[in-house]
Structure formats: structure tokens, C-alpha cells
Amino acid sequence: MRDLSRDCPDDHSGSPGVRRRGVRLAAVISAAGLLAAGVAVAAPAPASAEPGSVVISQVYGGGGNSGAPYSNDFVELFNRGAETISLDGWSLQYTSATGTGLFGSQKLNLSGSLAPGQYHLVQLSAGSTPSGALPPPDTVGSLSLSATSGKVALVRSTTGLACNGGSTPCTPEQTAQIADLVGYGTADYFEGTAAAPGLNNATAAVRAGGGCTDTDDNAADFTAGTPAPRNSATPPAPCGGASPSPSPTASPSPSASASASPEPSPTGDPCDVPANRQIAEVQGRGDASPLAGQTVRVEGVVTGDFQAAGQLSGFYFQDPTPDADPATSDGLFAFARDILKDVKVGDRVLVTGRVTEFNGLTELSPVTAVDVCGTGTITPKVYDLPRADGASFEPYEDMLVTFPEPLTVTDHYNLGRYGEVTVAAGGRLFQPTDRKGVNPALDARRSLLVDDGSNTENPAVIPYTTPHVVRLGDTAVGITGVLSYGFGAYRLEPTKPITFLRTNPRSPAPAPVGGNVRVASLNTLNWFTTLGSRGAGTAEEQQRQLKKIVATLKGLNADVVGLMEIENNGGTALNALVDALNAEMGAGTYAALTHPYPGTDAIQVAAIYKPAKLIPVGKTRSSADPVFRRPPLIQTFRRVGGGQPFTLLVNHFKSKGCDEAATGGDADRGDGQGCYNAERVRQATAVLGLIESMDLPNPLVIGDLNAYGEEDPIHTLEKGGLTSLSKRFVPASQRYSYLFGGLSGELDHAMAGKQLAKRVTGATIWHVNADEPRILDYNLEFNPPGLYRPDAFRSSDHDPLLIGLKLPGGKG
Fold first, then answer.
1. Smallest Cα–Cα separation from 777: which of 552, 496, 607?
2. Residue 374 in 3-state DSSP?
3. Per-position b or e across 70-102, b if 16+ CB within 10 A of its CB
4. Which of 493, 230, 519, 520 is nearest to 361 (CA)?
5. What are the CA-CA distances from residue 628 to residues 551, 678, 685 (Å)?
6. Cβ burial, residue 326 (10 Å; 0-12/13-18/19+)
7. Residue 695 in contact with residue 714, Cβ under 8 Å?
8. What is the pLDDT of residues 340-368, one digit of tens each?
């Protein structure tokens, strides 16, 4: 089970939710570099969603009020798709129409599954005036809806969204988790151009077509009508044919049918009916077409054929005789499935259809005629990244382009879910607060999102997995495809296979660090023995996770390891890990320290060590200072043969994620450091205070500090006399341990006191996790079974650190 709450630096794994169609504003913000980790960005409003399989089909909030036909509020769900959908791990969330409350403040977890055409009735709170009973509900909860205006979100996660779309905008990561959204009445957050109608005690918001209609516009999709709740026992009412899948494409317009019949042609050859516009006239010089809403007939040569089921439900075509204006694109997308007219690349076509702006993409939809009238050739436009300062991809929208230079993979978070990777000219992209010299605006201009030309979510065949699974740092040359737009970003739909060269090969073992003591730090990504919590959801997943963590620890072969994200359950999870590790490496190889004060958080820090190599000196200590949500673990060690001691301080600072409690200095300042930066500074200051007050010899501070290399908490520790060992020993190009938002950076640190720093012989970051896509991890929900290996690669989302110490004195 994947913990969807860990969606920003730590508690910071990226957002796996369903992507939403956005407006161009999102792309502009992203291009300006403002979507770096921890920066809250206003979500586009009104919201816009790709038509999904499971939708909200009715909303009723007048239950138990005067004149109400039913005693309870309710929300009805409906599967308008062609496949059974599981609701396990989903939730229903509600907030007021215009208030400051967050979606997560009223949340109801869902379970079960919905067959095609099946309804699911969610019974909610009751009012004070009893009236009619609902049909037997499929889910019962206590959410209290407004009878007149509100916002209901169907969320593909059980984590409460810390946003409301209005006073607290939803970030792209939060918006991505919303499977469907209904704003009604005076709601300030909704799909499309306007909210659904206002309601009263006797009316519900009812989705048209029995739930089948989904045009991404609440005002168009819903009417105020008599509540008519349906449950899973109601006879299924399939919508007929496969519905659009909630996958990232910028193709089908929700207002059109991909199977529209062509308009009658004049007597004779339809190819004799000429075009009445050039494609450049349709595209215009700006973001939107000047001919939107008009029916046109245009001519071009097919450059990208994505008509088949599961693809984009249409094709791209381009004018072989472009105009002389460089500001106008000469390509266009036609939303026309192969059942209307099957075309192929190279066909010269005359296409009749209505000009539509579908969430930023200029297209023809509906298309009423596609006539193949010969063949032609389009030479791809050569495009060199980075884009010029101030330049947009807009003049090349829907055109065939090729990128001749080597492009490096910088993000693959959505590789498994949507077949996407992001590449960049000039190498890997880094977090701007991780190091000096990062130019976010330039990084945005040198980046390109590469899609897979598919409408399939969690495809059975994932691209770029043969002959090996692509890693960050791998490169490709001559990437070619049609430049499209969707979900707030320009994206390339490839028209020829892309081969990524293994320019960032795996390292089977960490680089040598020397010394006579090896110290490691590892965030385990929620090692839990309690199933269905933050970690594994099943016993099989748990064993898969355990094997990967054990393989990582075995590869590190450290004498002492500081661990983060161990379940705080009285040592059960920690001891289970040690037992599995010793079963692999030999009985008694490792022992666990008992944390004297693990705190009350669901996770704790821990440490394991080799009794044959190190002896704990004195008792294990910690701190009850409330500044630590996950109190540190402090232990002094000496080599078995004696000699100079050192003190390990294992830490896990507060995450960058924002919530209602992030106020004052802990609010997001817009400087790239995210929320709770002030708290992390206080934690860093407190660590320095512990070193001084406890008179700790030769301190070594390690752990997931949830701060990048040039952020305030790290500077605080450095000003307090600690030395960053990764900055000292690890080359800048390799100094990263985490990927977030397509940007690499170091959240995991090792910092030594002045005297101990003289005894450090080396430090390295073993890149077994951050460079690897999450399709290789232990999860079973969507990962292809053939990709799993019981090895160290993608055992977590954080890379481990390894430090070598040369401690004098003693024997051996």
C-alpha cells in the first residue's frame, strides 16, 4: 500500500494522484520555477477535470431539514466507465462553499468496488426533522453538507486535503488527487466555467445522463432536481462504450463524441470540397484560437496517429504549406476516433469540425468529416533547448518537432501511472535551495515533458522499461513527436520510439569511504509491522519491503546505522527488521538500541549497531523538548578495541508539508523552503543545545533533516560548528538523496563536530532509490509483477548515506 500522505518533502514523495486538466496559468507558474518543493501555488480556478470513470452523480445536503424528503444528507457515486473500479483507499471530502475550512476537515473513507454502470450510495448526517429513509446505503458517514452551497471532492487517497480551492488554494499535487469535484451554489471552487446550481431542502444536484455526462463543467453537468438516491442494488446503467480514462492527455473534448457521424458530403468526391481556412488561421497568434466556436474545414498531413482505444482518441495533422508567421502554429489536433475514419501518418486529410479550446489545447471537436485525399510528408521542426528567455512552446503547439541534443531524464515519478518522463537539456535539475547557482527559470526552459500518447492509467505495458528500466540521469538523443498541451503543461507525444542510453548506471555497492568505523543513515520509507497503516498493506507487500530494506542494509555493511520512519510500536517493527537482517548476515550481527523517549508520532528514529565492532558508552539518551515531534536518539560509541569515542545523534526533522497549523514563521514564505522552516531551525538549534548541554564527545548528526543543502536549518547547524560531510566529500553532481517535483536535492545529511570532522575518511551517497522509478518498489497495487527484485534498488524514496571514520587508539 502506498502512503499517499507523503506528497511533499518528507512526507514528501511526490503526488501519485490522477492528473487534472488545467489552464495555462499552471504552466506559466511552473515555468517560473514556483512549483519547487514546498512552495504553495494557487490552483487554477475554476477547476477542470479529465472525465473519469467514477464520478459524483448526486449531492443532497438538505436531509432532515424542514420540507426535506429524506432525513439524511447523501452523496451518490457512479461508475461511468467500462471496468470495475475499487474504492479502497479513496475518500469523500467536504468543505463549505466559500469558508476557510479545508477539505480534510470533513473526510469519510470509502471501500468496496463499483462495476460499470453501478451506483454507490453514501449516507451522511441527519437533520433534526425526521422524514423519509434513504435506500440501504453502501457507506455510512457523518459528513454534514450545506443544503444550498458547498464543495464535495472524491479523492483517490484517505489523506485529508489541506486545501479548499478558495482561501487555501489546492496545489497541483493536491489537485492531482481529486478524482471528481462538485462545487454547487456559491462555491468558489468547481469544475469548468461555473458551479452547479444552488440547492434547497427539497433539491439535489443531479448529474445528467444518469451519471454518464461529464463535460468537466459542473454548471453544464448538473441540474437541481428531486433527490433520487440509488445504491449498489439499483440495476446497473452502463453508459455504453468505454468512457474516457482519467489519464494525462490533452485530446478529447468533453463536449464531443469521438464517434460522431460525418456531415453529408456534396455529390461527388468529398476531396473536391476545399478547405476554407488554413490551420495557422485556426491557431492564431495567441494561446486561444480567434475562430473558437466556428466550424471550419482545414487541410494537412497526419503527423501523429493516436486514434485507437486507450490512446488520445484522435490525430494530429499539419499544414505542408505553412504561413510565414512564426507566431502561428501550423499543426492541429482532431478529436476523431478511428471508428469515424481511420487515418495513418502521411495521409493528406481534409477535416471538418468545430474549433474548440479544450483546457488550453486548440483542437477540432466535434469532427464531422475526415476525408483522406492523398499522401504527404512533414519534416519535423528542429528545436533546441533551452527555450529562449520569454519564449513559449505555443507557436509549435500540435506540430511535429525533434530535439537533436542529448536530453537527460530528470523526473519519472509518473512513469508507471501515466507513461510520463521529464527530460532536460544540460543534465539533471536540482532544487534551487539545495545549492548555489541554480536558475529555476532557465531549468524550466530547458525541460520537456514526454508523454506516451495514451489515455491509459497504470498501463499494462510501461514505456522505457526494456532492455532496462530508465533511471534519472539516463539520456536520449533525437526525441521526436508532436508537441501538445494538457494538464497545465506542454507535452511531447512521441511519434517514434525513444531509446534511453544508460548514462547513469547502477552502482552495486556504495563507493569506498575508508576508515575503521562505518556509519550509515537510512530513511526506510515507513517500515511498519502493522499492516494497512503507513507501510505495506498486505503480508506479501511487507515481505517484499523487508527484503529490499535488508538488501540495502547488507550492502551498506555499516557498523552503526541511524534509521528513520520506523513504526513507533514499542520496538516490534525495529526488532523484526533486526531479526531479518541477522537471518541474512548471521546471528547477532546487529543489535538494536532501545529509544528511551520515542515520542508519540506514528514513526520514530532508531539505531542498530554491530556489537562485534562497537560498544555503547553510557545509556542511550534523547530529549523531551516538545520542539521535537520525533525525538532524536543519542548514543556514544567506542570501538570494541577501545580508543576515541564518538556520539551519534539520529534525527528526523519536521516535514515541509503545509497544513492549518503552519502559521506565522512556520507558514510557507515562498522562498522554496516550504512550511515549518522555522520549526526545523528551532530543531536544529535544539540539537546544538543538546550537544553542548550533554557535553557530547565528537558529535555526528545524521538523518532526514527535511532541509536542502542551502536552507536555514543546515546553515544553523553549520554556524553551530558542524561540517557537512556530503558537501566536503561528495561531488556536486552526485550530492542528492531525494527527488521531488522533478528536482533532485539532499534532504539526508551527515554533519560532524570540529574534532570528529578531522577523523572522517570519506562519505558517499548510495544512489539506489532517488534515481529509480517507484514501479520498482514493493507495492503490489499497480507495479508490473515482473519488475520486482528483492534487492536494494527502490527500497525507499531516500538514498542512504555512508561515512567512514578513522578513530585513533585502541586495538585493531
1. 552
2. strand
3. bbbbbbbbbbbbbeebebebbbbbbbbbbeebb
4. 493
5. 30, 13, 11
6. exposed
7. no
8. 899 999 999 999 999 999 878 999 988 99
